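Blinded run. Sample ID left blank on purpose so nobody reads anything into the name before looking at the predicted structure. Input follows.
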Amino acid sequence: MNEQGQAEGQATGGQAPRKPPLEAGLHIVATPIGNMGDITLRALDVLRAADLIACEDTRVFAKLASHYGIAVPTVAYSDATQDAAEPRIVRALASGKRVALVSDAGMPLISDPGYRLVRAALAGGYTVSSAPGASAVPMALALSGLPTDRFFFAGFLPAKPTERRRAIGEAGSVPSTLVFFEAPHRLAESLQDLAELLGDRPAAVARELTKLFEEVRRAPLHELAAYYARHPDVRGEIVIVIGPPSEETARSGETIDAALRTAMEGASVKDAAAEVAARYGLKRRDVYARALELKRGAA
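Blinded prediction complete.
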C-alpha cells in the first residue's frame, strides 16, 4: 500500500473510504454498446444515485435498469422529444437535482442527442460531469488494424446518394483515418460510393461490436464493396473505418487531368474536383483550380 493509501486507511479505521455523494448537476453516463458487462462501476454508482435519468429511449434503458437494479425515474430525451423534455430537465437542475443522461448505447452525444442539453446546463451554471465508458468509435478503430494516431469521425453518412457522395468527397481529403457509422440496409451502396470516390484504401467494417456475433472484416474498399454487394442482408450496428490517403499522392498531372475529365462528364466542376481531391488526397482548392482550367480549355 502506498503512503496515500495508508493515510486513507488510518483515517477510516482500516476500511475503504466512503464514496462522496453525487453532486447536483448533469452527469453524462456511458452505457454498454452490447455486452452488459461493459458498464463501469462508476456509471452504476451515478445511475443509482441520480434523481432523474434522461434516456434516448426509456424502453431500451429499462432493460439495463432491470439488469442492474436501478430504480430511478426516467424521462425520454431524443431528437423527437428534446423540445418537450429539455425544460423539465433544466427545472430539475435548477431545483438542485442530480440528472443522468444516457443514450441507447455507448457514450451520449456521439451521433446521439444531448448537445443541446449540455449547452443549456452550462448556460444555467450547473455542474456538468461525465462517467466515461464504452464507445463503438474507438473500439472499431482499435480493431481495424489501421493507423490510430489521428482519426476523423464523420458520424452517419447521408442517406441520399448525392449528399452521401458530397460528404465522402469532403471527408476524403482529410489526412487521417476516417470513421463512419452506417445503417445495415445502406452498407453495400455506401461502400460502393466510398470505393469509387476514395480509391482502394485499406478499410474495415466492424459489426455487432461486443456482442455474440461480433465481426470485423478487413480488406481494401473495393473488396469490401464487392463482398457486401453479394451479402446485402447484413444486420447489426456498423462502423466503417478507412485508412488515410496514401503518402503516394503526388500523382502525375496527366493522371489528375484524366480523372477530372472523367468526373466532369457526369458532375459539376465543383463536385468533380471534390471527388478527385478525395480520391488522391489532394487539396480541393488546387484540384478545383485545375478543373476550371480544363473546363475553359475545352470550351
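Unblinding after everyone has recorded impressions. The radius of gyration is 24 Å.
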